[in-house]
Amino acid sequence: MSLFETTAYAAPAGGAAGGADWFSFVFLGGFVLIFYFLLIRPQNKRRKEHQELVSNLNKGDEIVTAGGIVGLINKVEDDFVKIQVGDQVEMRIQKSAIGATLPKGTIKSLDAA
Q1: I want to staple 71 with a disulfide (CB 3.0 to 4.6 A). Which of 3, 28, 83, 91 is the partner?
Q2: Which domain holds residue 90?
């Protein structure tokens, strides 16, 4: 008995089914379409809406950041905005961290509650 196996066995002869080639391409195309409509397209739509939101920021807008900080925009810079989050408290945040704009008067209604 040898220490290493030296016998090699060949697979039985037979070709691939000819009809399965087109089915694999259709199957692959179906996966691409599923990924596009369920993942890529909605993500691009959200990215486009966020870019539009960030480009339309103005002084006096009330915003909420991705971290949940609510504030009033005092100054809009190139990549940053200065927001007032309290009396004599200002923060500089990146525009990309802004999650949404709020209707006017939201901060006052939050302070009153």
Answers
A1: 83
A2: 58-112
